[in-house]
Amino acid sequence: MNIVSFSAIKGGVGKTTLAFNYGEWLANTGKKVLFIDLDHQCNLSQIYDIYDNEGTVGNIFKDLGKVKLHSVSENISLIAGDMRLDDIERDIENKTNKNMLLYLWLSDNYERLNLEQFDYIILDTHPDFSTATKNALIISNSIISPLTPSEHGYNAKFNLEERIKDLKDEAIDYSTRESYFTANLYYVANMVKHNTKSSRELLEAIKDEDNILAIIPEKEIFNRTTLDKKAVSEFESDQKIYTKHKKFFDEISESFNKITTII
Ligand SMILES: Nc1ncnc2c1ncn2[C@@H]1O[C@H](COP(=O)(O)OP(=O)(O)OP(=O)(O)O)[C@@H](O)[C@H]1O
Ligand SMILES: [Mg+2]
């Protein structure tokens, strides 16, 4: 099983859009995917029209309680986000094991919920470095962080890296002195435009870095995926749309393929 978090301290950079489309793409290639929506904005859950108040991720943090796995399509299940997760995070602020609750939940429920059936767990997170995000990063094998061409787009990278360094030190198993945090951090340049100064600057800044998984252009059809609740892999089966956007769809497929071989 591969556990992947989409995280960034900056908002609106494409975490949810990329998590959704990548998970759907994996499912389309026959992989079984479990989405966990750790953002109290619940955007990923809303894409699947799930507005539950019961059995949400909130229970993982409240009392290691029961959660519901929604089977949303043949290969995809989802644990719904909780609109009160920010309040719950405040309530557990003084718990010493607050960053390990998802880790504990995963090991306690692995067999009961038959989690080994999933090839991938994909976590979408809130744009911050809160307790829920730390929990996600601690259980992850990989972190994918989108970088966008904007004034502070590239600098967001250093902010995340600093905080990850602190988390790695903080999440120590005192008996072995090893950190529970073992994830590899990768970036995706997202919403890259043709011929704009900020896009050129971002591409220039990342050109020699080896942990850039993909460069995704800004495209209205990609924006539409979350609005229409239809992933790129679904649009592909519509011949008219496919023909019109073939170049972009091929590019996305190639990027997702590359991501899969690296992470
Ligand atoms: N490559 C792209 N081209 C065009 N639009 C995009 C692209 N990537 C994301 N978007 C759009 O940008 C907006 C923000 O994306 P998204 O909601 O995925 O960001 P986010 O990082 O999850 O935001 P938040 O921090 O609020 O959770 C959405 O409207 C989405 O459809
Ligand atoms: Mg989001």
From TrEMBL:
InterPro entries in UniProt: AAA_dom, DNA_Partitioning_ATPase, P-loop_NTPase
A Pfam family this chain is assigned to: AAA_31
Stretches assigned to the AAA domain: 1-170
Designated name of the protein: AAA family ATPase
